[in-house]
Amino acid sequence: MALVAMEQVVFGYDDVPSLEDVNLEIGSGEFVAVTGPNGASKTTLLRLMMGLLAPWKGRIRLASRGAGGGKLAIGYVPQQIAAFNSGFPSSILEFVRSGRYTKGSWLRRMNARDHEQTELALKQVGMWHLRHRKIGELSGGQKQRICIARALAMEPDLLVLDEPTTGMDRESRFGFYELMKTQTEQYGRTVVMVTHGLDEVSPYLDRIIELERKEDGKWRCCTTTSCRGHFSPAHS
Amino acid sequence: MEMLHYDFMQRAFLAGALIALVASALGVYLMLRRQALMADMLSHVSLAGIAAGAYLHWNPTLTGFAIAIVGAVAVEYVRRSYKTYSEISVAIIMVGGLSSAVIIMNLDQSVNKSFSSYLFGSVVAVNRTELILMLAVSVLAALFFILMRRPLYQMTFDEDTAKTSGLPVHWLSLAFSVVTGMIVAAAMPIVGVLLVSSLVVLPAALAIRLASSFAAAIMLSMAFGLGGVWSGLAASYTFSTPPGATIALILLAILLVGIGLKKAMLQAAKRRSRLGIASAPDTPFEATRFTSAVRAAEKGESRG
Fold first, then answer.
1. In order of start, what are the domains of chain A with their CATH numbers?
2. Worst-scoring range by mean pLDDT, A49-58, A214-223, B184-193, B199-208?
3. A187 touches chain B (CB under 8 A)
4. In DSSP terms, which residues pair with A159 in a beta bridge?
5. What is the CATH number of the domain that holds B9?
6. What is the ipTM, given to two decimal places?
7. Is B24 or B39 the better-scoring residue by pLDDT?
8. How far is CA B104 from CA A193, B27, B183, B189, in A?
């Protein structure tokens, strides 16, 4: 079943269209990369998917329920969010725990599951030992990790990540790709990620959504390529 | 403590405490949402309401209060049109409010003459209506900040991620703006239109630098705000200085001393780190170890 479907979607800024003829489906449990040159509207595509932008034309369907039957949970890590909010006065633990705030009532007490998921998410990104530090004391790559941890702590059905490996070293990037693969394989989560590093990540992907210029040079559209069978894992 | 024998000083300390606590908590959210000038803007806008109230012979406190709320809602809508440059919305609404106030004041010169108490504050002359208004605003604002602390935290960090996680950001942001307008209008008798942002911004500016967590930032800001207002009132009584300006200067002094102490502590920490106390390194993503172990096991099986 498709978690996200876009049909004949057109969108632009002011009077200038930046995306046209977007047709795609992303199924539950897929690991998908969105790629394309700078200015190809990759972030715009993600924002349309999640309902943060309304299309000029066409239809966008986002499942209202997750695989478990509950309300669809979206874990979103925007581009450079960590750098933008570097002075935010919050401990890492407090910040990652905020991913649990949308589970149930705003006023409920944090329960054992909330603490477990927060701990698990921080351990998965290798930041548990720094949990009492302030966000502002972290490096760019570390901030990126805790933003990912917050999204994971939500136990999301859909993980949307906009250039999440910015600021990470090579070893961390591969660790991250493997973590995302485990999210899809173990928990059936859907991962959609904007990236420029296709060479590295393609062994882990199910599909690539590529944004291309059309022949008249004005419009861009989506093409999807299956990765299965085309690549072999880098570490195998 | 002789000053506390006077009714007007008791009222001043009570009113000051109420507003100091909610205004300084509000300041943390405003600063982190890049809306630090909103308090300043709303106080200028409410001046138009005060002028209109005085001109129409209505209660200027209540008309100023109403216009501050209208201004807060208006700035929320203008802010959405200038999302990237949200300070533009502050400038647009402030120009509208201030120019309207000047024109209304010019219509009746007697209105113009009674304005200094609104411009510079007169906490020792707080009347019963103002005190009731402050009490109601403080209770409402405290309830809002306590009940909405989790959604507010999420929205303050990033509106987009708050929206995608299912929060009604539109309504929450609007409610936040209304609460901001109410607090600013209620704070005006304490420090006046020109200095109201000192009560909102200065305690929060220091708390954000010192706090190790968000909850600590709110608590510290409230403590600095309360300390500043009470010591300002005491200093104003002792040295016969204007209370609003004295409070603002003491809050500024607290900020400067706090920043100085923080810098001294950072220098000491740097010296300690030179002596060999290094920062903790990252550990790898856990899936690396997990997947590597699975793959190693798979390889072992296939060889076997």
1. 1-73+156-236 (3.40.50.300), 84-155 (no CATH)
2. A214-223
3. no
4. A75, A191
5. 1.10.3470.10
6. 0.86
7. B24
8. 56, 30, 24, 20
